[in-house]
Every structure is written in structure tokens, then in C-alpha cells.
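Friendly challenge for the regulars: who can give me the C-alpha cells for this chain first? No prize, just bragging rights.
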Amino acid sequence: MQRSFNMSRIRGKDTTPELIERRLLHSLGFRFRLHVAQLPGRPDIVLPKHAAVILVHGCFWHMHKCKYGKVTPKTNRSFWQQKRLGNVARDKQNQRRLRKDWSVLTVWECETHDLDRLFKKLRKFLGTSS
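First reply, four minutes later:
Bragging rights claimed.
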């Protein structure tokens, strides 16, 4: 019961890392679209003018190699392992399809803790010097 309740509280859109990312993009002067359904995987942020998409991944859900992504639930381990592995496989497939026409950047939840570093990463990806 408790696990179900906890998982029901996790959002898929407008997460804190995503809002941080969007604020930084606005401060750089970029305008974008959110969760475009016509693109594979509904990317979090789409910059059509620059043919670029930014995927904001939660470290736990997408099995990042940081300390947050390595955490495994204590109960029902096999279920959660399969669910997370499914996310990773789907991510790879969606990124492969996106890369045919778009530049793709993946930003991990843990990267949103260092705003200066994230700011530089975004500027480099989008080719700005501001």
C-alpha cells in the first residue's frame, strides 16, 4: 500500500529538474515547446528552431550511473529492475529515432544540482556564447 501511494505521487511532467532546465533555457533567451507528442518518446523540451531536443531523465528511473541511479528498492526487486531496464531500452530506441533529424541532449537529474556546470553544458549544446 505504502509503495503504491509513494509511486502515485511521482510526476512525469513539470518535475523539479525539468523546471530548472527550462528556467536556464529562458535565461539564455531560448523558447521551446514541451512534451511534443509527435516525436518519439515525447521529449521533455523541444527547440524546433534549432532542431534540438533535451531529455531530462530522473537518475533512479533511467538507471544513471550516479549514486541516485544505483539505488535499488528493497521490496519487489525483480519488478522494479524490469521496469527500470524497460525504461533504459525505450530511451535508447527513442534516442536512435530522434537522432535521425534532431540533435539530442540528455540531462540527468543529478546534473541539475550544479547550475553553473549545467549552464555551460546547455550553452555548448546550443552553440551560444552568451
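The chain is about 40% helix and 15% strand. The CA atoms of residues 86 and 108 lie 18 Å apart. Your move, everyone else.
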